[in-house]
Design brief:
single chain, 407 residues, alpha/beta, Heat Shock Protein 90, Rossmann fold, Arc Repressor Mutant, subunit A, 3 domains, 6-stranded mixed β-sheet, 4-stranded antiparallel β-sheet, 14 helices, 13% strand
Length: 407
């Protein structure tokens, strides 16, 4: 396959061409009766063409454009040589061709065979690729940064995409790229391994997969203290109401049926992450908003309540540390860091400090204690250090907070 584009590798995106040809060859093998013919035409100076033909059942002219629509599959005809596919291969192929100022079409002038023509310019001003792998971030070369798309890919939220169909993964990953970093797993077990070693901000999972399906993965994630805070979207071809109810009952945050619009998927992801971010912001900036408000699951609520109680028991001890907190929580220090980052976007030391400050705010309002007294009761080594932290966290001095509440 690579030999067809080897001579053009310095002037076109070879990877994208190989992807398109791979989809065309797969379809040809799936639907051919006895023969497949591949032709490379380099006759023009500015364009070249690759023609892939098969002698299978002819595609009716009335659907020659519909076969390039996302998720379109002929209900009356499934390839004899392979199982039913995802219905996005031709859509993705045409999308890539057009992004490279080319065309992918069915030549209906050929009356005896199905003839797919890929026509591409030899020279490209931009490079738009499609990569699959553990992490995917794809952008045209020289593209200006768009709003919400940081220049540093490492700062993007991480989405774990659990999908065993390669075409579907490539399609969804390409739609998310530039907005999110995408990590890949082909089944629930692989996803569990990734969750154990990486911080993941959101999970999108198909339901029907080998080894461990999406429903089981969702059930495990939402019942495991280490992962229960992660928003979970089920992406599936099951469209009946009972399947949706089942997914939501085990804790899925959203359920999207195929076929779906990418705008809908992106909106769901954005809403889930943005809603979480707003809760965390209110919690961090408001003196009298407590940790239970940021819990997205019952497991998270119990976890934060337990941590809060541990800190309260040692509130006046300035030596309270992460190791003690992790020990009381029955979790490793690294596990505690990962969990706290996911639940409240702060490390354990920051959480200890903010719980001290919130308790201090409560004491200032309810007891009439002085700033100095509250500082020592809540475990700060000096009143000046307490006041500095209070103002940095809540945007006002302790004395200003008291006056505000007395109005």
């Amino acid at each position: 396959m690579k030999s067809y584009v080897e001579q053009f590798e310095t002037i076109i995106d070879k990877e994208a061409v190989i992807k398109i040809l791979s989809n065309l060859f797969t379809n040809a093998l799936k639907f051919a009766e006895k023969e497949i013919l591949v032709t490379l035409d380099t006759g023009e100076n500015t364009f070249f063409e690759v023609i892939v033909e098969n002698d299978g059942e002819l595609i009716p002219s009335e659907i020659k454009e519909k076969i390039f629509e996302m998720f379109f599959q002929r209900k009356d005809h499934i390839g004899r040589n392979s199982p039913k596919g995802t219905g996005i291969g031709l859509y993705l192929g045409r999308l890539l061709a057009e992004l490279h100022n080319g065309k992918l079409y069915l030549d209906d002038k050929r009356k005896t065979v199905n003839s797919f023509v890929l026509r591409l310019p030899r020279q490209q001003d931009i490079c738009i690729g499609l990569r699959s792998g553990e992490q995917t971030v794809v952008r045209p070369s020289g593209e200006e940064r768009q709003p919400g798309r940081p220049d540093n890919p490492e700062s993007l939220p991480v989405v774990l995409l659990v999908e065993d169909e390669k075409e579907m993964f490539d399609y969804v990953a390409s739609e998310l790229s530039g907005y999110y970093r995408v990590m890949k797993a082909t089944n629930g077990k692989e996803a569990r391994d990734i969750l154990d070693s990486h911080i993941v901000n959101l999970i999108i999972s198909d339901i029907s997969m080998p080894v461990m399906n999406g429903l089981e993965l969702c059930r495990i994630v939402k019942s495991d203290l280490n992962y229960s805070h992660i928003p979970f979207i089920l992406l599936t071809a099951r469209q009946n109401l009972q399947s949706q109810i089942e997914g939501l009952e085990i804790g899925a945050d959203a359920y999207i049926s195929k076929p779906f619009s990418t705008e809908h998927l992106l909106a769901q992801i954005s809403n889930l992450l943005a809603g979480r971010e707003k809760l965390l912001k209110v919690f961090a900036q408001s003196p009298l908003v407590y940790s239970g408000s940021i819990a997205s699951t019952k497991a998270d609520e119990e976890f934060l309540k337990m941590l809060n109680n541990v800190i309260m028991d040692k509130l006046s001890d300035p030596n309270l540390n992460v190791e003690y907190l992790a020990n009381k929580a029955g979790i490793s220090v690294s596990g505690l860091y990962r969990k706290m980052k996911g639940v409240c976007n702060m490390n354990p030391n920051e959480f200890i400090r903010i719980i001290r400050l919130k308790r201090a705010a409560e004491l200032l309002v309810e007891t009439g204690m002085s700033v100095k007294e509250v500082a020592y009761v809540t475990g700060f080594s000096a009143p000046s250090y307490f006041s500095m932290n209070f103002q940095k966290q809540f945007g006002m001095k302790p004395s200003e907070f008291v006056k505000q509440k007395q109005r």
